[in-house]
């Protein structure tokens, strides 16, 4: 009997720890930034051990509710509301999978459902996005979302981080669209279905595939900019240094180098993105560090950082551009959380306006 009690207590402690980690790493501001309604974010943040509900199960329930509402709206002829409800459902499924670091079946199912919601929208008249699949031969495909803009005068490729990918950044894509900039919300190697379906992990070798995205969207000779949030800023910086035609780069809450993986959550996240474990994993991650002495970024660089970011220290941006970059533009929010979740509307408007200015100067030149 005592053994049964000990097992039960251990299970309760593990459940409690999972919930605490999820609520800390996925704060209310992040969920709203990723497109979840505030009431749903409040609900997930209010979960307690007494609820006996895993984070991902509670998020999936919210997604199911929004899909029910989408069907109801569609049946009534309110197709715009149906599209919105599917986007809410997608956000809920996506936020559910954020709490799962390793690629298990629950994570794959939830991310697949998040994608399916938007794919259903993409077939509707007036929808501003479509799913893209860029073949890589025997290595599978790169996936993402393409936000098309009539008469666009430039393009942006946006990279998310270790577990916030692709359609998490619909609002940024639409902010760019208001500036007549078309956007690809990319799922790079190590991210999204590029990893979950193609099995393509991140490395110095596979990051070169990002050039295929540039070819995919920029066959019209118009300027191309890159945006990277969190670890995605490191991905974008490598691409910007390797492709001299890139017109502008924005990093947001981005590390320049990783020297250790001290926490189990870190090891799980990086292991899923890069593949491998132990010393071999750390070496693969360190090999991805940025060196501004050998990798030169020549385009203008907008760097965003927050003073309340527990993951990236203020001033880290300097590691991307070295000393004396003529077009470095750092911006700092004293109370900014990681990737400025809590200033998302202002952040997105700034990025879109700044990219537009860079593109116009590029075209005038």
TrEMBL record:
Source species, domain of life: Bacteria
Domain AB hydrolase-1: start-end pairs: 163-335
Protein name: Pimeloyl-ACP methyl ester carboxylesterase
Species in which this protein is naturally found: Novosphingobium chloroacetimidivorans
